[in-house]
Design goal:
single chain, 161 residues, alpha/beta, five-stranded mixed sheet, 18% strand, globular, zinc, hydrolase, Cytidine_deaminase-like, EC 3.5.4.33, metal-binding
Length: 161
């Protein structure tokens, strides 16, 4: 872990809080190049009703525009939740050098939990992975969000009775 990993993960957490503010699953991502955040994104899958609206994919698209290339070879992606298979594929395709994530994803994590698509020898690119950076903070964002969601559903169901 680099000294700046926690600093940039805090930036990803800020993005996750933007998702939370619009009742989206609070996942945030930033892409860093040469010590500067060049792109950011947060989950808007429910709002946009679009499968491809994950935080990582939004940040990758923005970074492509900033750099003017599909290759993000000198970049590090910081994301609050371990990338899913779709996002891991996009990371490999975009040639991101390094991925730093906060919370593991036991249901869809493809950067080490279920499998590691970012270190698959058969692909022509591999990304270094650092896990668990500010894991508690990142996990609490998700735990609190889903606890509140369940509570709201229960309250709504109780009112119907």
């Amino acid at each position: 872990m680099f000294m700046n990993d926690a600093t940039f993960m805090h930036e990803a957490i800020k993005q996750a809080n933007k998702a939370k503010a619009i009742n989206e699953v609070p996942i945030g991502a930033v892409i860093v190049r040469e010590g500067q955040v060049i792109a950011a994104g947060y989950n808007i899958r429910e709002t946009s009703r679009t499968t491809l609206s994950h935080a990582e994919l939004i940040a990758i698209r923005k970074a492509n525009q900033v750099i003017g290339s599909w290759r993000l070879e000198d970049c590090t992606l910081y994301v609050t939740l371990e990338p899913c298979p779709m996002c891991a594929g996009a990371i490999v395709q975009s040639r991101i050098k390094r991925v730093v994530y906060g919370a593991p994803d036991p249901k869809a994590g493809c950067a080490g939990t279920l499998m590691n698509l970012l270190d698959e020898e058969q692909f022509n690119h591999r990304a270094a992975v650092v896990s668990g950076v500010l894991e508690t903070e990142c996990s609490l964002l998700l735990t609190d969000f889903f606890r509140n969601l369940r509570s709201q559903k229960k309250t709504s169901n109780d009112r119907k009775l």
